[in-house]
Amino acid sequence: VQLVESGGGLVQAGGSLRLSCATSGIMFDRYYIGWFRQAPGKEREGIACISGVDGSTYSADSVKGRFTISNEDDKNTVYLQMNDLKPEDTGVYYCAETGGISSVDAKYCSNGWYWHYWGRGTQVTVSS
Predict the structure, then answer these.
(1) What whole-number distance in Å separates Cα of residue 60 and Cα of residue 43?
(2) Which residues in 77-110 are b (16+ Cβ under 10 Å) and which e?
(3) Alpha-carbon distance 95 to 84, whole Å?
């Protein structure tokens, strides 16, 4: 299983970025993909996840209304569209995969313990 993130960069507050998570080696329509982020000196935060089973999604309150998770099954890729970025969104963004949960909700999507495979991350920096 491999997960490769891309799309990070430097953007001004109020701007947008779209992150991609390219996957290989998984049954894409049967697994769950999540996005996590970690800011310097802070704990890792689960911000969004999507079910390949039924397409349901979860977004954390901190990003709800600004970030959208989506997938393209034929490309085995999950995206995180990030709009209205704020300086507090700065951090390293990781995608992760698991087959060990049953639904997308706060319990699973916010806790990295449930997620088995991780990418190396992509840096997002939002300037004020």
Answers:
(1) 15
(2) bbbbebeebeeebbbbbbbbbbeebeebeeebbb
(3) 21
Q: How confident is the model at residue 28 (pLDDT cuts 50, 70, 90)?
A: low
Which CB contacts under 8 angstroms, 24+ apart, belong to 17-20? 17/82, 17/85, 17/124, 18/79, 18/80, 18/81, 18/82, 19/79, 19/80, 19/82, 19/93, 19/95, 19/122, 19/124, 20/77, 20/78, 20/79
* Contact call for residues 32 and 52 (beta carbons, < 8 A): yes
Q: Which residue in this structure is represented by tokens 């996957």?
A: 23
Asked if the model's pLDDT at residue 20 lies above 70, the reply is yes
Q: Report whether pLDDT(29) > 90.
A: no
